[in-house]
Input
Amino acid sequence: MKINSLDNLDRRILRALQQNARLANNELASMIGLSCSACLRRVKILEENGYIKRYVALCDAKKLKYPFLIFAYGTFLEEDHKIRERFIFEMKLLPQISECYLISSDYDFMLKIHVQNLEEFHQLKKDYLNKGIGIRNIRADIVVKTIKNTTELPL
Output
C-alpha cells in the first residue's frame, strides 16, 4: 500500500486516529461509516504497512514540571563519521532531548529539549553538548510561548 493507494476511507481512519488514538474500533467504524470488521481490517493493514507506527499518550510537559522548551542548534568540529555516530548514540540516551535532527543549514543539527529549569539545561550543555562528542558550538533558543503544537500530519 503506497501513499497514493490510500483511499478516502484510509485517510479518514488516519485523521480520526491522529486526533484520538484511544477510539474503540466500534466508535471508529461508526465515524468512518464501515462495519467493525472492515474497519479493524483496514487499521491492521495500515499498521502492517507502517502508516501507523505506534500509539502513544501525549503528556503535558508543564504539569510534569518541564516548563522550559529549548530548541538548540549546533555545529560539529569536523566531518568525521565516528564522531557523528557517537553524537547520535549520546543524543538517543538523553531523556531531556525529545527530538534530534541532522539538518542542512548553517548548523549541523537541531535538538528539541525539555528541562525543569535553566540550571538543568546549563548542566546538560556542560556535561553532554560539548567538544567531547565533537560539538563545536551550540545556540539555544528558549520558547516563550507556543502558538501551535500538533502531531497530526495533513491528510
Q: What stands out?
A: The chain is about 35% helix and 20% strand. The chain has a mean pLDDT of 95. Residues 96 and 114 are 5 Å apart (CA to CA).
